[in-house]
Amino acid sequence: MTKERYFSVSEAAWLLGVSVQAVSGAIHEGRLRAEGGPRAWRIPASELVRYALRAGWEPEAFARRLKEATKAEWEEVLFWVLLAFGMVWLLSRLRDRNA
């Protein structure tokens, strides 16, 4: 099964096209969920997708950016997108249908 991937603040900033300070501010203001602590924040890929879409990114454009930056397979990127929307069940159901 595909697993969640985590990004550093600087990686997240690059993917979002914003500054490190903007990402740190979003974490501190509670607009972007991260794990760890101020010196080692880890941002789940699904949370990064959720935040990007709320910030105005087109879903397909951000998914492509994630795929290109991470060299992930489309299935993995789709997993992160679905996880962002709380639809992991859809991915597992699609797998079951294809099995």
What do these coordinates show?
It is globular, with a radius of gyration of 14 Å. The chain has a single domain, classed as Orthogonal Bundle (Multidrug-efflux Transporter Regulator, Chain: A, Domain 2), CATH 1.10.1660. The protein has six helices and two strands, in the order E-H-H-E-H-H-H-H. The mean pLDDT is 87. With 99 residues, the protein is mainly α. Helix 1 packs across helix 2, helix 3 packs across helix 5 and helix 4 crosses helix 5.
Bin the strand percentage.
Answer: under 5%
Strand order of the largest sheet: 1-2
**What's the gyration radius in Å?**
14 Å
Q: What's the N-to-C terminus distance?
A: 14 Å
The name of the CATH topology is Multidrug-efflux Transporter Regulator, Chain: A, Domain 2
Q: Label the overall shape.
A: globular
Short description:
This protein is mainly alpha-helical and 99 residues long. The protein has a single domain, classed as Orthogonal Bundle (Multidrug-efflux Transporter Regulator, Chain: A, Domain 2), CATH 1.10.1660. The protein has helices at residues 9-16, 20-28, 45-54, 59-70, 74-84, 88-98, and strands spanning 6-7, 43-44.
Short descriptors:
single chain, mainly alpha, two-stranded antiparallel sheet, 99 residues, Multidrug-efflux Transporter Regulator, Chain: A, Domain 2, 6 helices
What is this structure's SSE topology?
Elements: E1 6-7, H1 9-16, H2 20-28, E2 43-44, H3 45-54, H4 59-70, H5 74-84, H6 88-98
Antiparallel strand pairs: 1-2
